[in-house]
Amino acid sequence: MQLADLPTEILDTILEIALNLHSLPAHVLCVNSTFRDIGYRILYTRLHFSTIRQLYQFSRKSNLVPHSPREVTVALAGGIADFNSFHFLSDALRKCLADRYKLNEDPSASSLPLDSLRLCLHSHVSNPYLYQIYNALTAANPKTFTWTGPDPGHHFSTAIVPTAVDHLFRAIATWNLVETVKLTNISFPHGPPELPASSDYKPLLPPLPRLRHLYLGQATYLPPGAIAATALQCIDGPDGELRSSLEQIRLVDAYQESIWGKRLRRTDVERAALALPMSKMLDVEAVLRRIRSLVQCEAMNERIMGGDRSEGLTLLE
After folding, report:
1. Closest Cα to residue 239, out of 294, 275, 282?
2. Which listed residue, 153, 260, 264, 301, has the most CB atoms within 10 A of its CB?
3. How far apart, in whole angstroms, are the C-alpha atoms of residue 95 and residue 91?
4. Strand 235-236 and strand 241-242: pairing?
5. What DSSP element (H or E) covers 147?
6. Ramachandran region of residue 218, left (φ > 0), alpha (ψ -120 to 50) or beta?
7. Rounded CA gap, 120 and 122, in Å?
8. CA angle 239, 242, 225 (to 5 degrees)
9. Is 47 helix (H, G, I), strand (E, B) or coil?
10. In this structure, what DSSP letter does residue 263 have?
């Protein structure tokens, strides 16, 4: 039996590996028409961009995108500082959406439905076009969204800068399909500790119909009041009846201030929850029960020296 005669399910797996590993994927597509057809479907339904140039060239393609993407990944090396990355991502996603209309696939969709949208890149404080984050992300409607930093996990770097946070969360708030959000290497807007901002006590996100899991890792200047408000906003009635799909808020190496300060613990979120005005209308036990069932604080990476030491603890209560 020749390779081309294998069942489609097996060929799909083999070609996905080959296309990911080959330095010139087009060579794989040139083997025969079967490889070309299966390979096109793999490449277009699982789009992966590793350079700004790829994003730009794809967004300017005149040819029809033959298969609507299900997964989109943008993974840029840590040293890349191109201020147009989100502009080109916006153009690429909107091209896919426009071509989806031409293929007559759910022409009523106002944004591109995806199984996953994954970003691995830096934003920059000096970028004057950070508003493009909102424009790009609202062009999609993913079930799973991930934005991580390109540096190794033990590096405490910032990929999502404070001036990008508002654009990011406003975009996420528009998604009605999202079930899982994972954000790491994020620094929240902050001012002097003695002058807390009003946003310190507002939910990070409004209630989203399908959101089940929210993960924040290597987060600095994360206000516990915002986490508490996010957890409590869907409690209805003084007895704590719950109207929300949210199942877990997981905070890993999250800090109230800089990484030299104190890690966020669940008791910090509990205290913040009891101080919120909305808690005055709720039973105290219902408030604490909600926080304890939803919020999980963890330590994963230790500094070589200094900072808040977890002393071997994984869960921080």
Report:
1. 282
2. 264
3. 6
4. antiparallel
5. strand 140-148
6. left
7. 7
8. 90
9. strand
10. B
Beta strand 248-254 with 295-298: parallel, antiparallel or unpaired?
A: parallel
DSSP class of residue 160 equals B
CA distance 42 to 67: 9
How far apart, in whole angstroms, are the C-alpha atoms of residue 33 and residue 152? 40
Q: How many residues does the chain have?
A: 317
Average confidence (pLDDT) per 10 residues, the chain, 317 residues: 71 77 74 77 88 92 87 85 89 92 78 96 91 96 96 82 96 96 95 61 90 96 94 66 80 91 92 86 85 92 61 69
Pairing of β 46-49 and β 71-75: parallel
Beta carbons of 113 and 177 less than 8 angstroms apart: yes
Q: Note whether 316 and 298 are within 8 A (CB).
A: yes
CA distances from 25 to 36, 118, 211, 238 (A): 11, 21, 36, 60
- Rounded CA-CA distance 219/157 in Å is 10
93-99 long-range contacts, Cβ below 8 Å, gap at least 24? 93/136, 93/139, 93/140, 94/139, 95/58, 95/59, 95/61, 95/65, 96/47, 96/65, 96/68, 96/69, 97/139, 99/64, 99/65, 99/68
At 75 the three-state DSSP class reads: strand
**CA atoms of 3 and 35, how far apart (whole Å):** 10
pTM of the model: 0.88
Q: How many angstroms from the chain centroid is the CA of residue 273?
A: 25
Q: Please report, for residues 35, 92, 120, the alpha-carbon distance to residue 50 in angstroms, rounded to integers and kept in the order given.
A: 23, 14, 9
Q: Report CA 88 to chain centroid distance, whole Å.
A: 18
Identify the helix (H) or strand (E) that includes residue 242.
strand 241-242
